[in-house]
Design brief:
Length: 120
């Protein structure tokens, strides 16, 4: 196949669609421990709390601000949190694909995206 094969965008789209589709049935499932903590910290930020001053968690604050923005824009419902985090996961899959493709070629890019889709 090599570089001349142009089916890689379709393969990446299939991985992304499959990743989203596999999460769709769970959009109403209760949040697991980490997700609940992220959502709570997002709520506290919306109420004016400052990470690492008023609230503390051992991870970087991006996820807290992400959850805060999602709740401010789409509300605090489980489907809103689940669907937007699935989309965020798909963005990560594209980044993993792009990095692996750049380092090792398009087949490695698809393989890395597929592996990441299974892991997240």
């Amino acid at each position: 196949m090599g570089e001349a094969y142009n089916g890689f965008p379709a393969a990446l789209a299939t991985v992304l669609f499959g990743s989203f589709l596999s999460r769709w049935p769970f959009r109403h499932a209760p949040l697991i421990r980490d997700e609940g903590e992220y959502a709570l910290l997002g709520q506290l930020i919306r109420e004016g709390a400052v990470p690492y001053l008023d609230i503390y968690y051992q991870k970087t604050p991006f996820t807290f601000y992400w959850m805060s923005a999602v709740q401010a824009i789409f509300g605090e419902s489980l489907p809103a949190l689940r669907v937007t985090t699935a989309i965020y996961g798909m963005v990560i899959l594209v980044a993993v694909y792009a990095l692996a493709r750049r380092l090792s070629g398009p087949v490695a890019g698809i393989a890395a995206a597929l592996a990441m889709a299974v892991l997240i």
